[in-house]
Design brief:
single chain, mainly beta, two-stranded antiparallel sheet
Length: 190
């Protein structure tokens, strides 16, 4: 990834072509089909997750969580990996930072432990990055959610006098955008 987000100039010092400045990938790496049933203030869900197209990885999850606005937890069971987890909702620490904690047990290895995750929609590994999910309700009971990411380096103008470097130079920046996941969500309300 670092090579695709290098400086905006080519090796000869000229202007990079437009194709070198951006890369947009519209093929998602994860496809999810979610079935949800709402019963007496609780949502019961079955998630079928397909990812890593080269390896044809597949995962099934059963999810149980309350429907209220103040929902504070969700229960997840993964039958293939024999994992059971109880996760808190994402707790906002500030405007851009969230904390999530959970406890789980793996029946295959007979191991119990807890995890925590600090996450943000901003950030990355030395690169400016935005991650987000966009939901679209097509009709009652059927929603589509698209998880996308944009990594960018903003253009930069710089120069020098008396150092042997050009008086005026410009890095044109880079953009790498991708659709990471696509979810189809079917919900049945009682």
């Amino acid at each position: 990834m670092a090579s695709s987000l290098g400086d905006g100039n080519n090796d000869e010092g000229g202007v990079a072509s437009l194709e070198d400045l951006y890369n947009i990938n519209v093929v998602p790496s994860e496809l999810l089909l979610k079935f949800r049933k709402e019963v007496q203030g609780v949502r019961v869900g079955l998630n079928l997750e397909f990812f890593n197209f080269q390896g044809n990885d597949f995962q099934t999850k059963f999810v149980l969580k309350p429907l209220g606005i103040d929902r504070r937890w969700k229960f997840i069971y993964e039958p293939i990996h024999k994992d059971v987890r109880l996760l808190s909702k994402k707790i906002p620490i500030n405007r851009f930072l969230n904390l999530q904690v959970g406890i789980g047990h793996n029946f295959q290895y007979n191991v119990t432990g807890w995890k925590w995750k600090l996450s943000s929609c901003l950030g990355g590994d030395g690169i400016s990055q935005i991650r987000n999910k966009t939901s679209v309700g097509l009709f009652p009971g059927f929603d589509m959610r698209i998880g996308w990411r944009a990594e960018y380096i903003l253009p930069e103008i710089h120069g020098a006098v008396g150092t042997g470097e050009p008086i005026f130079n410009m890095n044109y920046g880079r953009l790498h955008a991708s659709i990471d996941r696509f979810e189809a969500i079917l919900t049945h309300s009682s």
